[in-house]
Amino acid sequence: MCVNGQTRGEIFTSLAPMRGLTTRHFMDILYDYGEPNEYISEFLRVHPTATVPADIIDLIENRKSVADLSIQLLGKDLEHFSRIAKMLQNYKIKSINLNCGCPMPKIGRKGVGGTLLTELNTIDDIISIISTSTSIPISVKTRIGYKSPQEFAIILSHLAQHKLAAVYVHARTVKGMYGEPVDFECIKIAKAALNCPVIANGDIKTAQEAVNIIKKTNADGIMIGRAAISNPWIFRQINELAGKTKIFVPGGEDYFNFIEKLQSFPNKLMLSDFQKTSSIKKYVIPISDFVDPSGDFPHCVRRATTLQDLMNICKSFFVKKYGNRHA
Ligand SMILES: Cc1cc2nc3c(=O)[nH]c(=O)nc-3n(C[C@H](O)[C@H](O)[C@H](O)COP(=O)(O)O)c2cc1C
After folding, report:
1. What are the pocket residues of ligand 1 if the criterion is a CB atom closer than 6 Å to any ligand atom?
2. Which pLDDT belongs to residue 181?
3. Can you give the pTM of this predicted structure?
4. Which domain range does residue 300 map to?
5. CB 169 within 8 A of CB 194
6. What pLDDT is recorded for position 152?
7. Which one of 68, 143, 289, 326 counts the least CB within 10 Å of its CB?
8. How many angstroms separate the CA atoms of 307 and 284, rounded?
């Protein structure tokens, strides 16, 4: 199956939604480095007073990206799904994506996110109410079960009853959080059960792994989250590998340049230096773990308390110590 934005021989790629990380600023950086084919926004909570927030409108209307954007909704209140879906009708988006995977206990306790997998009729009802409220296509992001992968067949039998634009499968159970091994056999099962594109997600760390997973599972595309933070060139590398052209290998200066771009985000919330440092660290810690898994660099990054400190630590690691093309 060919998903939109894809030309022959290319692999369809999607940036996984990651709350607090997949911001418009990060997407604008990816625009410069090699974008995925599509983005899904971090989740927007559906509740009685919810509206489409300014940062989501900014993302829809002002991002540099040429890639499609879906907006993810998380909740279970049918009336307000209908209301928000109608509001989204005013914007150009690829799909409304339903979150059926979030494993965070504070979300799960409200019966939404991954907990919806214990209430499959509610998932049916949410999809139906969105589709009667708007003509926007609907996609679903799911895990393979709440407690056990054995639940996946029944989950798929529910999803198969609806007209869906795509199903994104994070191939772990909700209870498995992020520690359980991913089970990509489930992607084959999803492919057989569904009549829409199936996108594989979970622990895909390199371009080579992305290509292997497509071959192994016959998925229609892959979705990458954390590896795109530690290596924002990964989507470019996947296309280079699939197209059999030379693969870009980032050097120290490339990484430092990425970190400089991150710290130049517009500080609309008037964050203090400490808050800004903490927010940049959410990106720099995974980068430092990736480029120096057992070294001092991640340790120093974690201890930085000011932005100046953090930038000096990064500069000395990437530029002074390693120079370009050696990270
Ligand atoms: C910090 C963080 C925030 C996340 N936020 C969301 C979210 O808002 N919506 C969602 O569907 N998944 C969310 N996820 C899950 C990711 O989209 C993805 O499914 C998961 O990280 C597995 O993919 P990966 O191994 O490529 O990172 C989040 C994950 C992380 C680490």
Report:
1. 16-19, 21, 42-43, 72, 99, 101-102, 141, 170, 201-204, 224-227
2. 97
3. 0.95
4. 252-321
5. no
6. 98
7. 326
8. 12
